[in-house]
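Problem statement: downstream parser choked on a complex file, so we are re-checking the raw output for the fe (iii) ion run. The parser issue turned out to be on our end (a line-ending mismatch), but while we're here, posting the original submission so the record is complete.
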Amino acid sequence: MSNRLETVVDAIVEGVRGALRDNNVTMDEYRMAMKFMAETMQEGEIPLLIDLYFNTTIVEITNREREGSSNDLQGPYFLPDVPEVTNGKIKVMDEFGGDPMILRGQVSDTRGNPVPNATVFIWNSTPDGKYSGFHDNIPTDYYRGKLQTDEHGQYSVESTVPVPYQIPNQGKVGQLLEMMGKHSWRPAHVHYKVVKDGFHDLTTQAYFEGGDWVGDDCADGMHTEEFVMPHVEEDGKKVMEVNFVIDKAA
Ligand code: MBD
Ligand code: FE
């Protein structure tokens, strides 16, 4: 009798063994790879490494079974315990600069009805490409927050414009990409997670039309058309208007 854990682990092991055989991987290379994994672990970059290669595959599987908006990478930097933003502003560090940006839109169900009281988690990097709670000791109540949609299913909040994100190149994962001759950039993006009782969580990202690395993302993000947003500006502020359609859970 085989259980699911056994099925999946056996399949992964067979897949890796196949790659080792096909490439005649040597004992030295095997030891080097093991050392790389141990050091990546010590540096706390295992989530980054795993998300870089496999998050996109799980998203692909999720999207096969969902209606409504497309899911996209969650990435390694989501935090569930973040302040509720009630004054319309996500806290940012003034000394970090960055252009102000309004993030707004509507949450609706697959029949087009607005969904009030949905929780929208929003997080994005500093203008320097750092995530609070993970890099440079930036406190976790900055550059992230959660809000509730109003009676029309709408949300609106202000933050700053994110820039393309480069995987830290002092770290093991950045070094790996460099040694392989690959770039380590993701397009500028804003992360979202929409949560509402009775619905599947929607985890996705929005990107900027024409932005660098859209379509050439080191983490293979979806960049689906619905979330590559056109340039909109209002009163000199960038506007990221993103509507979400969430799928009822069975
Ligand atoms: C990120 O900021 C990110 O969003 C993903 C998916 C992977 C690495 C860094
Ligand atoms: Fe990110």
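For whoever reads this later: The helical segments are 4-22, 27-42, 46-64, 172-179.
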